[in-house]
């Protein structure tokens, strides 16, 4: 049996690599004991701000067997999105993950292919694919599967590739060979904590989501609070500061996923262009992008807030 588990696991990992995933790790589908009290405290302190959806499905977030009946394994996958080129220096900034096509669609397609491959090669397998859109604690599973450790900025970090990648999962009813977590390599570094302009990293490994620039520019639907004026450092959608300053991101290499390549306008526009953006241009540049989440009005609101 264990030989079979090994064979299946290496088959799956080889196919994940062929599909373009950066890495693939596997862990046993079981209750996340360590995360339960942490998540509870985080919600009690209101650190999720207006993201009320985080209060839903508490038990499902912690137990994959409640999400996928009979599940045995959580297969975690990383997909690189680090861009070849970044925006014009005199520009309002967009988080690098949103440069190209909306990652939900790109990854979902790859996960479908991987699932199909497993069914063809191994037999009847039941399971579900997750890309950051269901109650799954992605980073916790990826860390448990040995793909990296959770850094002081609360992102998953790997010595080989830093942190500019998406995390996705397949939760399946197949027993596999399980990986073990890696050790933490943040050491005494506090670069991310020192660099955060809104002091969202309230202590190492703890981020107050309701103070994060990404939260304000994407999740918050109300007016942006004046008390934070001048602290957004020109970020109009998302924020990469804590990742940009992280020493491990020296090892980030550009992705090779054509769908993540940005619209030329996104790289070339300067502040004046963004301030004058029309709905038509917005729709053209962000036609299939994650930036559509803020809608034209939301992006305009953010740009107006940034104007000196």
TrEMBL record:
Transmembrane segments: none annotated. GO terms for molecular function: 4 iron, 4 sulfur cluster binding; cobalamin binding; epoxyqueuosine reductase activity; metal ion binding. It comes from the Bacteria. SUPFAM superfamilies: alpha-helical ferredoxin. Its main location: cytoplasm. Its EC number is 1.17.99.6. It catalyses: epoxyqueuosine(34) in tRNA + AH2 = queuosine(34) in tRNA + A + H2O. [4Fe-4S] cluster 1 binds at residues 186, 189, 192, 246. Keywords: 4Fe-4S, Cobalamin, Cobalt, Cytoplasm, Iron, Iron-sulfur, Metal-binding, Oxidoreductase, Queuosine biosynthesis, tRNA processing. TRNA binds at residue 221. The keyword Heme does not apply. Pathway: tRNA modification; tRNA-queuosine biosynthesis. Its cofactor is [4Fe-4S] cluster; cob(II)alamin. GO terms for cellular component: cytoplasm. Belongs to the QueG family. Catalyzes the conversion of epoxyqueuosine (oQ) to queuosine (Q), which is a hypermodified base found in the wobble positions of tRNA(Asp), tRNA(Asn), tRNA(His) and tRNA(Tyr). This is Epoxyqueuosine reductase. It comes from Salegentibacter flavus.
